[in-house]
């Protein structure tokens, strides 16, 4: 079965948008306030290249909010610190000041549950 290239392009576009967090202006605002973004905090915490994100493409399920809520304001995933596996949750203040709703809460609950079942420390960067 041939691969539908439009699906691949759409996925790539959605990933790129999500990785921009709330957009360049909101990232710049965080930096002007002397703060790191959620992704920058995760990069400084974890061993280089060890972060595997969960829920990158999640967005708000509220009508009309999907384009405004990359990762629904919560970056979640797994990585290592000094080689030890950990679960990480980081509030993304560039996306609606990291307000929480249904999808955000589901992602947070998922990480709490998975880290508990796997016996991993959960680090929450608020």
Automatic annotation (TrEMBL):
<protein>
    <recommendedName>
        <fullName>CoA carboxyltransferase N-terminal domain-containing protein</fullName>
    </recommendedName>
</protein>
<dbReference type="InterPro" id="IPR029045">
    <property type="entry name" value="ClpP/crotonase-like_dom_sf"/>
</dbReference>
<dbReference type="GO" id="GO:0004658">
    <property type="term" value="F:propionyl-CoA carboxylase activity"/>
</dbReference>
<dbReference type="InterPro" id="IPR051047">
    <property type="entry name" value="AccD/PCCB"/>
</dbReference>
<dbReference type="Pfam" id="PF01039">
    <property type="entry name" value="Carboxyl_trans"/>
</dbReference>
<dbReference type="InterPro" id="IPR034733">
    <property type="entry name" value="AcCoA_carboxyl_beta"/>
</dbReference>
<feature type="region of interest" description="Disordered">
    <location>
        <begin position="15"/>
        <end position="35"/>
    </location>
</feature>
<dbReference type="InterPro" id="IPR011762">
    <property type="entry name" value="COA_CT_N"/>
</dbReference>
<feature type="domain" description="CoA carboxyltransferase N-terminal">
    <location>
        <begin position="1"/>
        <end position="126"/>
    </location>
</feature>
<dbReference type="GO" id="GO:0009317">
    <property type="term" value="C:acetyl-CoA carboxylase complex"/>
</dbReference>
């Amino acid at each position: 079965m041939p691969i539908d290239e439009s699906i691949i392009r759409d996925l790539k576009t959605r990933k790129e948008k999500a990785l921009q967090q709330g957009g360049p202006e909101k990232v710049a605002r965080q930096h002007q306030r002397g703060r790191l973004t959620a992704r920058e905090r995760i990069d400084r915490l974890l061993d280089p290249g060890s972060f595997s994100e969960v829920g990158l493409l999640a967005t708000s399920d509220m009508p009309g909010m999907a384009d405004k809520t990359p990762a629904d304001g919560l970056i979640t995933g797994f990585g290592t610190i000094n080689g030890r596996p950990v679960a990480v949750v980081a509030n993304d203040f560039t996306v609606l000041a990291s307000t929480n709703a249904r999808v955000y809460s589901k992602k947070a609950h998922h990480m709490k549950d998975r880290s508990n079942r796997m016996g991993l420390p959960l680090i929450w960067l608020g």
